[in-house]
Each structure stands twice: as C-alpha cells, then as structure tokens.
Design goal:
The chain is an alpha/beta fold and 294 residues long. It has a single domain (8-289), classed as 3-Layer(aba) Sandwich (UDP-N-acetylmuramoyl-L-alanine:D-glutamate ligase), CATH 3.40.1190. It has helices at residues 23-32, 60-72, 88-101, 126-135, 146-152, 163-175, 221-234, 239-258, 270-273, and strands at 8-12, 15-18, 36-39, 43-47, 56-58, 79-82, 107-110, 115-116, 119-120, 141-142, 180-187, 193-200, 205-212, 287-289. The strands form three sheets. It has a nine-stranded mixed beta sheet, with helices on both faces. A hairpin with a 4-residue loop joins strand 12 (193-200) and strand 13 (205-212). The longest helix has 20 residues, at 239-258. It binds 3-hydroxy-5-(hydroxymethyl)-2-methylisonicotinaldehyde.
Length: 294
C-alpha cells in the first residue's frame, strides 16, 4: 500500500534508435530484473554518437513539462538513474528533478556519461563537463569510466594508472558528494584483465571485481554495467554482490559478441544474455582491498 509493489526507477537518458546504448539497454535489463522503468528521455538519436552522421533531437524544452505532469501525479520513485544528457541546460533540470523527487529512501545514481578511451563523445561540450561536475555532487552512487574520472577531476587523461592513483581518485570523487564511487574499465598491469574498483565512504571499504580482458570496445557496456548495479541494489544485494553481478553480466555480453566478426558499434548481443539476469546469484569473485581511507 505505502510502497511500490514493484520497485520503480526514473531513467533519465537518451533514446538512440540503433547501437544498443542508453534506454534500449537500460529498459530490458531493469525489466528483466523485475523493476519498472519510467523513461524521461533527454534526446532522441538515430544511432549512438559513435556512428558518422547521426541525427540528434534535443529534448531539453520537453523535459520540464513531463516532470511537471509527474509531479501532479505525485509519482514516487525508488531510484533516480541518469546517464547521457543532451545539453548543459538539461543538467540543471535533472538537478532540480533530483531535489524535487528525492527523500532519504530514494537512491540517486548518476552515470556521468561524458566519453571513453580518453575522448569526449561528440555531443559532449566542455560546458557539459562542468555541469556534470555539479550533478555528481547530488548522487549517492556514481559509475565513471577512467576517461570520465579524468574529466570530472580536471586532470589530463592517461590510460595507465596504478592502484595508488585509483585510490586517490576514488577518495577525491567521494569528497565531491557521492557515498559510493565505482570506477570502471581499469586495465590491469598484465593487460589480461580489466577491473572495477569501488569505494564506500560510509564504511571506508574498497572492493574490486576483475574479469579477463578482450581487445574490443562495445558501446553501451557502461550502461549495461550501471543498469545491473541499479537493479541489483534495488533487489537488496550488497555492494560487492552488485559489483560482481554487473561486471560478470557485462563481461558475458562482451564474450557472447566477441566471436562474431566485426560490427562492434552495434553493441553487445544483449538479447542472447538477458535470461541470465533471472538466475540466482552465481559464485562470486569479489575482493575486499586492504586499503584504508585515511
Ligand atoms: O553508452 C553511452 C552513450 C549513451 N548515449 C549516446 C552515446 C553513448 C556512447 O557512445 O553516443 C548518445
């Protein structure tokens, strides 16, 4: 009666028609995990922005009227989850949305989608990076990749980072506001593995989950990772179990796709692997890192 019978997420992302990123990934993943997704679209694109000549419709002017209708309906969300935003002005709208719809039970996840492989995505301007630095302050959880870590911290990009640097980036990002910071796609020194390392400011613990690395980059794997994190925590999993499920699901997607020749821009073959999200939690491989937070 007093809470939603099915957990409900406001998902603030773009809708890219082709290429398996953002809402076309987030909706099936969260639905498969038994969670209702309410999209608040930020932009409509013909494809994601890594294809040449993509069409882009900025929905900034449409967002506030949609939000106002949701307010009149007194909708309550268990989580607010934002990702790719279409303009700098939009970031203020999202910040206000968080203020209006948040209470102490609402989980706010900001995936600061800004770039990858050392570069900003084409539609992301410098202003949007500055605005995203403001938005992450409002989040409970953020999930940047390494490129996004450097953009958020105004540091020059370097692909090779050691553990000491990762630890200090996690602490600096957590100081900006989020309780939990997860840095994705950290290469291991052996080049054979890739890891996610997370820091929980509330208990001072650091967690690491690794998987074997394949030389391929599929757009949308960050959205896949963050969606499983949102779904898993809403299902009641602990932080290390959520990290483990998200890393292993994204890695399964990469492995299911990698053997086919050539069209990495189409993303991972999500449709092949979705059923695995309904299985009971599988054996896990997370590690508690022996790092202190002071
Ligand atoms: O998954 C990230 C993402 C989201 N939205 C758009 C993108 C990308 C990455 O390329 O282009 C429009």
């Amino acid at each position: 009666m007093f809470s939603n019978p099915v957990k409900r997420v406001a998902a603030i992302h773009d809708m890219s028609g082709f290429g398996r990123v953002s809402l076309t990934v987030i909706i099936p993943i969260l639905s498969s995990m038994g969670i209702q997704v309410c999209p608040l679209p930020t932009a409509i694109l013909s494809t994601h922005s890594q294809y040449e000549g993509f069409e882009f419709v900025d929905l900034t002017p449409n967002m506030q009227p949609i939000i106002d209708h949701w307010k009149r309906l007194k909708l309550h969300f268990d989580a607010i989850y934002s990702g790719f935003l279409g303009s700098a002005a939009q970031i203020d709208i999202v910040a206000k949305f968080i203020d209006d719809f948040r209470d102490e039970k609402v989980m706010v996840v900001v995936d600061p989608v800004l770039g990858d492989n050392g570069k900003r995505y084409t539609p992301i301007s410098e202003d949007m990076v500055t605005e995203m630095q403001m938005l992450v302050k409002k989040a409970d959880i953020i999930t940047p990749n390494l490129t996004e870590v450097f953009l958020l911290l105004n540091e020059p990009y370097t692909p090779k980072v050691n553990h000491e640097q990762i630890r200090s980036y996690l602490l600096r990002l957590a100081e900006m506001g989020p309780k939990i910071v997860m840095i994705t796609s950290i290469p291991a020194t052996d080049d054979q593995h890739t890891s996610v390392i997370a820091y929980n400011r509330e208990d001072g613990r650091f967690w690491k989950v690794s998987c074997s690395y394949l030389p391929a980059a599929f757009p949308g794997t960050g959205d896949t990772f963050a969606s499983v994190i949102v779904g898993s925590i809403l299902q009641g999993d602990s932080l290390p179990i959520a990290l483990d499920r998200a890393v292993n699901f994204a890695s399964l997607g990469v492995r299911a796709t990698f053997g086919y020749p050539g069209k990495p821009l189409e993303g991972i073959l999500l449709e092949r692997i979705l059923p695995s999200l309904s299985q009971a939690v599988q054996p896990t491989s997370y590690q508690l890192l022996n790092w202190s937070s002071n």
